[in-house]
Amino acid sequence: MPDDHDPGLQLVHLLRAVTVELDLFGGEFAARNGLHPTDVRALISLLDAARSGATATPGWLGAQLGLNSAAVTALVDRLERRGLVRRERDTYDRRRVLLAVEDKAVALGWSFFGPLINEMVAAMRSFDEADLVVVQRFLLAMRDVAAVGRRTPWDGPAER
Known about the structure:
With 160 residues, the chain is mainly α. Helices cover 68% and strands 6% of the residues. It has six helices and two strands. Strands 1-2 form a two-stranded antiparallel sheet. Helix 3 packs across helix 4 (69-81). The longest helix has 26 residues, at 7-32. The chain is globular and about 55 Å long. The two termini are 14 Å apart. The relative contact order is 0.08.
């Protein structure tokens, strides 16, 4: 285990602190809008899919969130009842259901998260382009490490 003075460990602690703050912020959004934190994660995943051009299906969403099909059905039903998500038939394969975020959800999210996003973007303006390239590379590497860790079975603490 690295000691507390290891620069890498210090960055891990800072990254964790940012994650906690963003999680608390998302939790506040969920609470104010009668949503479960998983609902918020689902909406974020669906918005990210739309932004990247990925096809979002219930199976895809379940894989993103680590949920089984019954849980995804309940989640999508909840979001659909609230008018935040809609199911659409795939025009190429009518058996397949696609998921899309409604404009109402985008407006709701932007009304809450917009000021934070604007402040974050403004804070990034103090970094030059080379700095931002390094930060992006760092964040992508950390995301990939976390994704692998999430998918790796944990056998409990090592025996001494």
